[in-house]
Amino acid sequence: MEKQTTPPTRRHARIDVADVLRGLSVLAIVLIHSIEHFNFYRFPDTAGQPAWLNFLDSAIWDSTFFMISGKAYAVFALLFGFSFFIQDDNQRLKGNDFRLRFCWRLLLLFAIGNINAMFFTGEILVMYSLVGFVLVLTCRFSTKTLLWLAAILVAQPVSIYHAVMSMIDPSYTVPMIQEGPLWAATYAEQGGGTFLSTAKVNIWEGQLVSLAWAWNHGRIFQTAGLFILGMLIGRQGWFKAEYVGGWAKVAGVSILAFFALDGLAPMLPQYIEHKGMLFSLNIIVTSLARLAFMLVLVSMVIYAYYRTNLTSLLNKIIPYGRMSMTCYVTQSIIGSFLFYNWGLGLYRHLGITASILVGVVIFLAQYQFCRWWLRSRSHGPMEALWRRLTWLRFGPAA
Q1: Is there a domain that residue 398 lies in?
Q2: Per-residue pLDDT tens for 64-73?
Q3: 363 lies in a domain?
């Protein structure tokens, strides 16, 4: 009698271009955080600087914010949803339901995010751990439903509501979470506190102001929409080589949308006097403009990866992308030590040009570590810890 063999369980292969995008986004994040002094906007007096250095500082600040601000985090959010789909579908192929395990994984992320928050008030992992439950709630919806839901979320529904209410009632005031006292508390400790006092403020006032800013400026809804869009990218296989033509179309539409929205944003104050309506419309327009620009960047990377001779060059960033959590968390630790008072206090001495060079050095050091680490291991330290804790068994063994 012929021996019956069990066919191997299918699973999604790792998609290299996703790691390329992840690595580039984490690189972008460390650069912009460095010129911001890791959410501590204090700089030395530039009055005595030569004119060329003032010009260079301004050029670096403006160009970095234009290229990166609101885009790197958007790519990161897109990939978070994509990673969820891969994990969820791999378990589905094994006959398992990953949703409850992912809830546990989000709780672990919440803990990791709070550790990161001790060092850096602008960290995003806590927000991801909270918003991430939208993936659990929606992952069994149809593709059409998810597309509509993602479109509604990135369109900033709360800001639309406030804009309409401001139009109907001129006395309407947009409700805002007050950020000022919270920012003041964090700045005071970052500029003059010890490590323990800074960590204490960062973990409470710092997290509250980070979440308040995300709510006030539409980041919560945009992140939820990008999570869902990333999940759809995984479901539809849009990161695969055969979909490059589709990404070219996305780039074309997104370029047109970006220029239209980016041109509209500075015109709004000329025609709208109501502060609440202006604030709400500005959130809608600027967040959509950044989303459009992000899609252009993603499309360009995907096209370059699959259709040009840049593949081998882009592949070099893969180790950094595979260890994105490790790099993101250690960036916070290194950056706060370098710029805050409890460490070297370099905010007193380094301007924008010197600070972005610090970001480059941090990246290069992390990159070399990632290459060395992955020569003998499959996951980075934080990634391995998160993965191992995710699959802890609860209750009696079977």
Answers
A1: no
A2: 999 998 899 9
A3: yes
